[in-house]
Amino acid sequence: MLCGIDEAGRGPLAGPMVIAGVVLKKQITQLDDSKKLTQKKREELFEEIIKNSIYHIVFKSAKEIDEKGISACIKSSILEIMNNIKAEEYLMDGNTSFGILNLQHKIKADATIKEVSAASILAKVSRDKYMCEIAPKFPNYDFEKHKGYGTKAHVEKIKEFGRCREHRVSFKLKSLNEDNIGIQKSLF
C-alpha cells in the first residue's frame, strides 16, 4: 500500500502551504498533476478522491512558514501524515526526503504516480478554496483571483496596501527593494 504525498503553495506570497497524503482504496481515472487540470476537473476529482481514499491534509500558515521556514513546515507536515496514515511505502513529489526515514521521493511523481497525483489535487483544491474563503476579509488583495501567488496585480496591491496577516513577510520582493531588515507588516 502506497501513500502519495504532495504540497501546494510552496512559493506564493500569501496564504498557507497545504500538504496532503493519499492512499487510494479504488482506481480513479483521469488523475494527473493538479497544475495540468482545469479548476473544474480538479474539483470533480477532489470529491471522488475524498470518497475513495484514506487521506490527511495539513495546513501550514504564513506565520508558521515565516517562523519555521518552508522545509521545516514540509517535514513536520509529512511526519504528521505518516502518523495519521499507516502505509507500507510513502512517496513524496520532488527531489528530497527532508531527512525522513522511510520516505521516498521522485521528481514529477505528481504526473506519474496516481497516489501522488491525488495528493496534488487534494492539496491544490484545499488551498484554492481557503484563499477564496478569506478573500472577502482582505478585499484589497483579490486573493480569489491569484490565490496569493506573485502575479503583477498582486505585487501592485502589496505596493499600494502593504501586507496583511496572510502574507509571508519572509518572502522578499525585489520590486519593492526589500531586504531582510526593516520590513513592515500591515496588521489587519
TrEMBL record:
A divalent metal cation binds at residues 6-7, 93. Manganese or magnesium. Binds 1 divalent metal ion per monomer in the absence of substrate. May bind a second metal ion after substrate binding. GO terms for molecular function: manganese ion binding; RNA binding; RNA-DNA hybrid ribonuclease activity. Its main location: cytoplasm. It comes from the Bacteria. It is found in: Cytoplasm. Its cofactor is Mn(2+); Mg(2+). Residues 1-183 form the RNase H type-2 domain. CDD domains: RNase_HII_bacteria_HII_like. GO terms for biological process: DNA replication, removal of RNA primer; mismatch repair. Its EC number is 3.1.26.4. Belongs to the RNase HII family. PANTHER family: RIBONUCLEASE H2 SUBUNIT A, RIBONUCLEASE HII. Endonuclease that specifically degrades the RNA of RNA-DNA hybrids. This is Ribonuclease HII. It comes from Malaciobacter mytili LMG 24559. The gene is rnhB.
